[in-house]
Amino acid sequence: MERLGEKYQSVEGFGWAARDSSGHLSPFVFSRRETGEEEVRVKVLYCGVCHSDLHCLKNEWHSSIYPLVPGHEIVGEVSEIGRKVSKFNIGDKIGVGCIVDSCRTCESCREDQENYCTKAVATYNGVHYDGTVNYGGYSDHIVVDERYAVKIPHTLPLASAAPLLCAGISMYSPMKYFGLAGPGKHIGIVGLGGLGHIGVRFAKAFGSKVTVVSSTAGKSKDALENFGADGFLVSTDEDQMQAAMGTMDGIIDTVSVSHSILPLVGLLKPNGKLILLGATDKPFDLHAFSLILGRKSIAGSAIGGIKETQEMINFAAEHGIKAEIETISMEYVNTAMDRLAKGDVRYRFVIDIANTLPATRP
Ligand code: NAP
Ligand code: ZN
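The line above is the sequence of Enoyl reductase (ER) domain-containing protein; the predicted structure tokens follow.
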């Protein structure tokens, strides 16, 4: 059966897709739409591997649409532009993150917070307004409205800039919004993974004090020496956790699995905020008194708007912030997913799409 909108999809695309919740990725030929008047076609150069890709591949959020081509940390080169495009030229290096469209009229859209538009269209595993399912950046090219792409400054290395499109903005935005970015603020970052390590670098560039709270004692040297954290707590060490109670203005929790947040609330000062980014589907168990005594709050945060994403990328370029990456080939992606599930990555996989995807064509 022809899917709605499929007749507009006349350009062949090639990527790697999972066909079911085994999450196993393999070569996949599909179609993409023609470049619209206000759209750009982007040749994908690099794509970061976010833990959200893994959640979706395995249908852990119970909303996966298969075949599923993941990837929302995309850096690429503009290969075609629509007639009315004014922001980009052919050859420009640009980034595409987690959303590729939104309603453009709601309050969130009008306030440059398209990420909170209830009709926002996800880069993959989302349904576009023309009725077609979106495929992400583990593919040779992508078509996007110019409003939903950002410029990558020349000074940023392209591969290690890719994770900024999701991990970077997801950490930058809550630090700014919740007033944690700046001297005199003490931020706790829980989980030193893809999001966490970039968060430490942003927090230090803002001038905040940063303590990493990790379940992996072996990450201490990286946290303190490589990423510049001021402190490191092993979350399973009760003495260390006890000694740090009541010291943090805010905590950003990036842990990708279900865990207890009560000890984290304890780390907060009065009026402190625990901000949840890690997207587990299990409910948290928390006693009201842990918040009442100390007027503490718990919030969530999802990526950031496009304007703020550009601001974040420019800030990263200005402060030399990039992700710590392991560049991999497309062929390696299933092994990379297994390693990501086990926490065996320092600190973000980035797929070298342009140099390694074409050879995998059947
Ligand atoms: P990641 O690279 O896998 O990092 C997650 C970190 O969580 C790990 O490095 C580990 O840090 C900790 N962790 C993992 N398993 C654990 C366990 N069993 N017990 C305790 N700690 C554990 O993942 P990521 O790409 O940074 O993404 C993190 C989460 O954020 C995912 O759920 C993802 O879907 C979500 N996310 C949210 C947003 C948003 O806007 N809200 C955006 C992107 C991603 P330690 O070794 O230091 O403990
Ligand atoms: Zn992501």
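Note on the example: Residues 50, 52, 72, 98, 166 surround zinc ion (ligand 2) (CB under 6 Å). Confidence is low (pLDDT under 50) at residues 1-7.
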